[in-house]
Amino acid sequence: MGLNIQDLAVSSPEFEHLDRLEDRHANDGDNHQPALHVSGVPDDAVELAVVCHDPDAPLPDGFTHWTLYGIPTDTTEIAPGADEQYRPGPNDFGSTGYGGPQPPAGHGPHHYYFWVYALTRAVEGTPSRREFLDTYGDAILEQNRVVGIYEN
């Protein structure tokens, strides 16, 4: 089956697509995870996963701010505190769970992609973003994202 990106929808009540994230979402602010709304999950999905990634970070593979696994397919809101409700994985800060934006000062605007993946099989453990994509790329039924922007 080819990748379908027509039905799964992702948004946030806390920022519009391509709008600036509030300082309270930043790692050096309150580090408050924004809520995500999800709809259009395929009927044959067995699990959802979330990855927040900054491809503008001055690193070869960007910077991963959040990995989250074990989200049931009937979930319509990934609310603040999701790290306590589901299974947080590693971020590139060297910890687990949500780590908000913290781009280098003066580096310009960075884009924070909040990806939601609908999967055909459950994720085992808590892989890094790269491990997740390498291991479960063939299990992605649909994916979509909402993007916020932040700069220091």
Automatic annotation (TrEMBL):
Family (UniProt): Belongs to the UPF0098 family.
Protein name per UniProt: PEBP family protein
Entry-linked InterPro entries: PEBP (IPR008914), PEBP-like_sf (IPR036610), YbhB_YbcL/LppC-like (IPR005247)
PANTHER family for the chain: PEBP (PHOSPHATIDYLETHANOLAMINE-BINDING PROTEIN) FAMILY PROTEIN, UNCHARACTERIZED PROTEIN YBCL-RELATED
Organism of origin: Egicoccus halophilus
Protein origin, superkingdom: Bacteria
